[in-house]
Amino acid sequence: MQDLLGKTALVTGGSRGMGAATARALAARGADVAITYVNAEEKAQEVVRDAERAGRRALAVQADSADREAVVNAVHETARAFGGLDILVNNAGIFAYGPPEAVTTEEIDRMLAIHVRAVFLASQAALGYMKAGGRIISIGSSLAWRVPGPGFTLYAASKSALIGFTKGLARDVGARGITVNVVDPGSTDTDMNPADREGADNERAFMALGTYGRPEDIASMIVHLAGEGGRGITGASIAIDGGVTA
Hints:
Largest sheet: 7 strands, parallel
């Protein structure tokens, strides 16, 4: 099934985890795909090769989402390479944990720059290229809805901002036929939060299903929202968290 044939996509933070799974899934459905990465060039090129093996054009762009110019330039570079942009997946993210008293101003600035400012700037730039049928999809977190314990204040605050952003932008661009949604993963088996790490059972205890998600679970929802099946979904926050927020 290649219902995204002829579409072009940019996935920020696409060299690993959910971003890499999303880029591969979009390519498998027919989209030409660009990804951004910071340091993992080898992994980024693996994703590019996989997309090319699927018969799609692919591009890896080095861009730190904390750098406002790099974020915007990645959008423009993707549009120049592919002749436009139809799908933006704001996936790049970092994680921080600890008591609020210990959080530094630098940590606050970097977290908000990557999770909030970069999403706004990338979306703003992408809207200059998108036509009816365009899709903007951001990766939030179940922690935006339920915080199960201490230490998550900064991270939860940054991901909660995406809910308001999504609802506002959905209203702003709905008349243009562009949809805007946020996907909120729970504990997902990636190198940032492996399912076999010490303490993982504590996270499972909050889930109705009791199992970690897979990056492919998140990618499947993103591909659905990016395709024809997502044409009537906008301004939505969709949880894929094993029932943590049930």
